[in-house]
Description:
Layout: E1 27-32, E2 42-45, E3 51-58, H1 59-67, E4 74-75, H2 79-82, E5 84-90, H3 102-116, E6 120-135, E7 141-142, E8 150-153, H4 162-165, E9 171-179, H5 180-190, E10 200-201, E11 208-215, H6 246-254, E12 256-272
Helix pairs in contact: 1-3
Amino acid sequence: MKSWIPVLLSCGAAIAQQPAEKIAFEVASIKTAQPSPMGQIRVQMGSDNGMLRYTNVSLKDCIRTAFRVKDFQVDGPEWLDSARFDITAKAPAGPGGSEVDFEDLRLMLRALLLDRFELKTHLEERPVDGYVLSAVKPKLQKADPSNRTGCKEGPGPDGKDPRIANPILSRLLTCQNMTMAQFADQLPNLANGYAHVQVLDATGLADAYDFTISFSAVGLLRGLPGQPPPAPGANAASDPSGAVSLPEAVSKQLGLKLELKKRPMQVLVVDHINEKPTDN
């Protein structure tokens, strides 16, 4: 049985650059990572013991976590993706010996980057191409609020699986007790390759719904690899392979509209960062 994908919180419209009061790790070790034949990245970051452990992690991933932004919201040198490090850090105990929460660890990681890599950044609003989700004639069933929230890969309670009759519809998402705001926020993760920036919910629908949607993986569509497929009303429906794009599926199956539009978005611009940290 496939597990449900938990709903994550959005990074929000604003990016806070500096904590009001600097908090730092008690001790931290940063080493250049040894090449991994599988390119595996292991991360342990939690409040149970106030420890942060990164293995073979890129600086870009550290910046994303430290500033609570998405990948597309970081603009810096290309080597931010390729320079990898092993990081182990210990947070001081909280007041009265209480556990350190994730937010404090995130701020400590930010302070570590500022101190050891001399990271300097600024915020900039830029126009980006991003999907906007809007309502046309919604075909959505209101959810039972007592059910857990999330999406899974596979058929819903009725057991219907269109992938059996048409394998090119290689993706089948079953979502339960999901608001459209949650669905839009999760689309970059749920529909890998389609949405590279955060999807804006403009449906005006506040209720939670149960629904399924079947579509083709982006690699099965016509066009250049990595490029967003055309939106409904263009030539997406005429794909000779029978593939169905995510925007077309959203239109026909959910009665919604998913279209690319230019919209302003905050970007964290890296003004300066050293390729190597200062000594431990």
